[in-house]
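Input record (one chain):
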Amino acid sequence: MAYTLDQFAADCRAALLEDAGRAGREHVRQLTEKACADRDFIARHLGPDVDAERTVLYEDPDLHFCILGHVYKGAKTSAPHDHGPSWAIYGQATGETEMTDWRLVEKPADGKPGRLQRCERTK
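The corresponding structure, as predicted from the sequence alone:
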């Protein structure tokens, strides 16, 4: 039986209501892995027929978490960014993503942006 978006959202909500900390987020990671492995879920929400590159699939009115679908056609890059005090769990349904780690060299100050240095990856 296919994993539905409604069930995924309800499961994530239940996990975070049970534990809003590290254990709850780990449970959400496992649920994300389950959704990304479900062919029907992928076809419906992340398939080639999806026109938008980024879609809010679900937004919880009480806990304020979102489930987003990103469907990129071709290579994309994004500028370094920080999620601040919030958290994000990424699932990769198809393709691959190359992540870059950055080290803060100079904090932003007096209206000037900060400076970053790309970290070398060890293999």
